[in-house]
Amino acid sequence: MKPLPRSERPLVVRTDFSSEKRWNLLQQVLEPDERHSFTSYVEFVDDPAYRDVAPERFLELVSADGPGAGFLFVADRIALLDDEFPLVVLGLSRYKERGTTFRTCAFEVDAVSGNLSVCHMGFDEFAEAVDPDGVFRGF
């Protein structure tokens, strides 16, 4: 399997290809919005090579010069079927969060991405704040 592309922006990697309409809608939801204090500014990876790849497998696909962020978002089947688009957030850094996951609804991607990117909050703070169904919906 090919390595993930290098980007200074967090990646949103599509692994479910069952609905082009839902993928397009997710991209619209994640478009930067100046009305919020954070903006997502993510990079979308829409490559059938990643079809049905489990989030943990992406740890093997991150090259030494791979994605610049210490995390990525996975748009799997669960994320694309649900109206909240609960994306998997996967920790990529070499520290304790490597391989750790939680889900965040699409409307919180900007907060998660912004805070993790500048180390304002830790991965574990978001992971511990998920709702009983395992999805982060804000504090």
Put simply, the count of helices is 5
Distance between the termini: 37 Å
Radius of gyration, Cα only, in angstroms? Answer: 14 Å
Strand order of the largest sheet: 2-1-3-4-5-6
What's the SSE pattern?
Answer: EHEHEHEEHHE
pLDDT < 50 runs, ≥5 residues: none
Topology:
Layout: E1 11-14, H1 20-29, E2 43-45, H2 58-61, E3 71-75, H3 77-81, E4 87-91, E5 101-104, H4 109-117, H5 123-127, E6 135-136
Parallel strand pairs: 1-2, 1-3, 5-6
Antiparallel strand pairs: 3-4, 4-5
Task: Describe the 3D structure.
It is a single chain. By secondary structure, the chain is α/β, with parallel strands linked by helices. 24% of the residues lie in helices and 17% in strands. The chain has five helices and six strands; from the N terminus they run E-H-E-H-E-H-E-E-H-H-E. It has a six-stranded mixed β-sheet.
Top keywords for this entry?
24% helix; alpha/beta; 139 residues
Q: Quick recap of the structure?
A:
The protein is an alpha/beta fold and 139 residues long.
